[in-house]
Amino acid sequence: MVNLRRLIITGSNISGEIPAGFSELKNLEEATLSRNGFTGKLPENFENLKNVKILDFSQNGFFGKVPESIGSLENLLKLDLSENGFSGEIPASMEGLRVLEFLDLSFNKFSNGVPLFLGNLSKLKGVYLSGNELGGVIPDIWENLRGVNGIGLSNVGLVGEIPSSMGVYLGNLSYLGLDDNKLQGSVPMEFEKLEFLNELNLRNNNLSGRISFSAKFVSKVGKKLRLDGNPELCVDEGVIKLYGTKARGGFGKVKVCDKVEDPISALVIGASSSSRVGYHVYCLLVLFIFLW
């Protein structure tokens, strides 16, 4: 057993705690124990598993804090602890997981905000923290995460505004979930720069202002552009028409913005024929005087 390299037990009726000898599997490269009945706390001494690349303990009954020693797994590529009962702060020691590509801690009871150290994990491709009790603001940590293609921050108690830097730096992003939070302010138009984005979920927040995404962007994202549940948000009528009047696509009940008319154009259009002629003559005289 000491030479075991892969331990895969999924979808079984196995229950109880992970045996104490688990941390002695020093040659272990993968431990996938998802969708079982495991309970209890994780072992404290992960530092012995220097060769492990995949840890998947998702969909079990684990609880308590995640051991700080998990941050010593310098070869870890995938960490999935989703759908358990883990609580407390996400360990700061995870900053040591410098080759980590996939992190899923969703649907636990983690708290104390979105960790800033994520900005130092430059190899990340997916980070999913939805369904926790994080709170706080979305930190401006995205400059070094240009390879990320999926971010899940749904229903975690976020407040404040969405950083425009997410649309500037996350050039490979295909999925962004920020729904069911308490976010305020406008929707960054920088999201239009994300050429691979095909799902943007911002529903059920307190966002406000005018959405003026281009026809190209709206057509690309399609019905996976979710903006409903933001009472102070409005969408240009032209954007709504891209979806047709029947279903209104992913906009749900987002209201249509009031039309904004150019005051000079409105004056000219609303005037009589003779008045419009006089107005144009006036403009020509002003231009002649300026050039003279």
Automatic annotation (TrEMBL):
<dbReference type="InterPro" id="IPR032675">
    <property type="entry name" value="LRR_dom_sf"/>
</dbReference>
<dbReference type="InterPro" id="IPR051848">
    <property type="entry name" value="PGIP"/>
</dbReference>
<keyword id="KW-0677">Repeat</keyword>
<keyword id="KW-0433">Leucine-rich repeat</keyword>
<protein>
    <submittedName>
        <fullName>Uncharacterized protein</fullName>
    </submittedName>
</protein>
<dbReference type="Pfam" id="PF00560">
    <property type="entry name" value="LRR_1"/>
</dbReference>
<dbReference type="InterPro" id="IPR001611">
    <property type="entry name" value="Leu-rich_rpt"/>
</dbReference>
